[in-house]
Amino acid sequence: MARRRIQPTTEILSEIVARLGLPPRAVDLESLRAHLGLPEFGGEVDDARVARGVRAMRSNRAFAETGIEALRRAVPGLRAVVSQSHAIAWSVRVAIPLLDDGRLELRIDAPPDAAVTAILGGMAHRNDPKWRLDELRAAVAQVSARATDALRRPVERLRDQIRLDLREVGADASAYIAQLDRSLRSRPFRFDDDLGGSLFHTLTPVRKRARTVARQDSRLRRLRDRVGFGAYIEKFTAARRLNRRILFHMGPTNSGKTYAALKVLTEAATGTYLAPLRLLALENYEALAERGLRAGMVTGEEVLGEASPTHTARTIETADLTRPVDVAVIDEIQMLSDPDRGWAWTNALFGVPARTVIVCGSDDALAYVRRAAEAAGESLEVVTFERKTPLVLMDEPVPLEKVEPGDAVVAFSRRAVHENREFLVAAGHRVATIYGALSPEVRRAEAARFRSGEANVLVTTDAIGMGLNLGPLKRIVFSAVRKFDGVEERALTNSEIRQIAGRAGRFGHQEVGYVAAAEETGIAPLRTALGGAPTAPAADTRFFVRPDLIAITSVAEEMQTQSLREVLAHFARATFYAGSPFQPSALEEILDVARLVDRARLPIQEKFAFSVCPVDRRDEVAMAVLERWTQARAAGAGVPALRANLRGELDYQERTVKLASAYLWLSRRLPDTFDDVEAIRAMRGRANDAIEQHLRETATRKVERRSRRTAGA
């Protein structure tokens, strides 16, 4: 008996296609068989199902040609692979950050769930990439969130290992990150039930390779640094004689790192504390004196305390780089990366002559500190501190209407601070106010009003980030997550967000600190910054520097010129070459001022003093005053104390205080010209009193006016 022939499925489909009235070559039968999921032989199927399959294949083909690209732009997380038969295989790309700046991402391809699949099928059927698009976005976000949550623990473990790797490679963190990033970009992972268990082990050799590359790059970098840093390091002769030991107290705000450093300082026979702000220098000078130590304070404009102190508190710009001490504490070391003032931290880190140098700051600065220690041939020990109270991000926005007693509302311009202040006063709050244009004395007084309960809400700028005791502060509310930095408006960096947010929940006052955004759009940036990913080291670890008086004088003699602008331009060409470990600190601003002071017939040393005098270079009135001062000095005339109208507007009083501080700064360098010191101190005190009186009087004034209107209604 003859064996029955089993008919190939493509023949069966050919017959059905013919019955449907379609040309035989109009349909790819093998692709149709695969699309319908039929076996190669004997695939029985009814005509209606084949008709639906042909229509679906045609829709997929049309959608593959026109719709997929539009959908990729509309929903960037979607990925599509189109086969020869125009079948579309979809996946959801999940990007999980391993560093907080997005330079390292773990890329996961997750399968779409039923909701995503159904919407994509409907889009293809209609060849309409806008059909139920918002629902698709939401469904894709849910797939991404589920995959991220499923991998939370293995990702946390991986982040911990990367954090340890970054501490190990230190100054060569950028090379490590670049190598690891290349590897991660080349290999997205397929999400499945086994991925969580295998992820860490799969990436262990990848991390090892990145560490190896970093070490290889390290040898070349150290050779370059030996040449590039050479003359700069050696000029700090007092520091080089001491074989210094560097301790890095590394941790976030409210972790006790500075407290521990100051304890070591007070136990030493001699020491110095270098502060980022006059306010901090003053607070720590008072703390040193209260401990019975022979204490002194030095800032750009004043000297307080004992005549020959064993312990001094200084603003960092006034660091004594000649007198050896036992312990030096350099606070807020991450300010090394600040374009305007970073030069002062660079000088202190390389040049403060202390047997033990304790630098305090966030882990942003580790690559800088390690590079400096290696270049100077000094030992470095990193001591890690953890935050003492938890910091919790609120899931819902907190608009100004919902601000509560104990909150601080943060904005990033003077105008925005006053707008927030007026709103909160009108809402019935008693408001304290802190922003950068206020003098340290006024800021301190306003902080005291908040601590005492005289004010129940604080409005502030990022001036809150350093140097103020704000004991009862329980919640930080970001009214914005963007700022104008003097050059452009930009998003806040993760480091800036953490520095400000960390002020909430001070240890000993609150058990938890809370952080919130005033608007829905502000929550995501805060979540990224506070999300637990390791802090990304700076991509550029060049050190900011500024010429000192010795460099200015020697270059002027070599060039035989008294033009400060020519000398500064020469310094820039000689110092900031390709491959240099340095970059200029606020050089453009100093060059602008140099044009102004070059108009006066002054020795170049005095021109340099005027060019770095702490005036607001963006204030035309202040610059005009500075020019008059240079001309008076050139004419040999004294400069009398400023005359101020104490009934002037708030911004007038703020400018008066700034100019008075600049006068006092110059009086320490050119005392025979700026000799009306007592009068200028008294005038500054009256202006500060006027500002504080204005802030106190208007802290509840609008409430009183509103109450009177209500009573008369």
3D structure, described in words:
- The chain has 713 residues and is α/β, with parallel strands linked by helices.
- It is 49% helix and 14% strand.
- It is built from 25 helices and 22 strands.
- An 8-stranded mixed beta sheet has the order 8-7-9-6-10-11-5-12, with helices on both faces. Strands 13-20-17-14-16-15 form a 6-stranded parallel beta sheet, sandwiched between helices.
- Helix 6 runs parallel beside helix 8 (195-234).
- The longest helix is centred in the first third of the chain and has 40 residues, at 195-234.
- The radius of gyration is 33 Å and the shape is elongated.
What is the compact description of this entry?
This protein has 25 helices and 22 strands.
Q: Percentage of helical residues?
A: 40-55%
- List unreliable stretches of 5+ residues: 703-713
How would a textbook summarize the main sheet?
8 strands, mixed
Oligomeric state: single chain
Report the C-alpha radius of gyration, rounded. 33 Å
List keywords for this structure.
713 residues, alpha/beta, six-stranded parallel sheet, 25 helices
Topology:
Blueprint: H1 9-19, H2 29-36, H3 47-74, E1 78-82, E2 88-97, E3 105-110, H4 114-126, H5 133-150, H6 152-169, H7 173-185, E4 189-190, H8 195-234, H9 237-240, E5 245-250, H10 257-267, E6 271-275, H11 278-290, E7 295-298, E8 303-305, E9 311-315, E10 325-330, H12 342-351, E11 354-361, H13 366-376, E12 379-384, E13 391-393, E14 407-410, H14 414-426, E15 431-434, H15 440-452, E16 457-460, E17 475-478, E18 482-484, E19 489-491, H16 494-501, E20 513-517, H17 523-530, E21 543-545, H18 549-559, H19 564-575, E22 582-584, H20 587-597, H21 604-611, H22 620-635, H23 650-667, H24 677-697, H25 701-711
Parallel strand pairs: 3-4, 5-11, 5-12, 6-9, 6-10, 7-9, 10-11, 13-20, 14-16, 14-17, 15-16, 17-20, 21-22
Antiparallel strand pairs: 1-2, 2-3, 7-8, 18-19
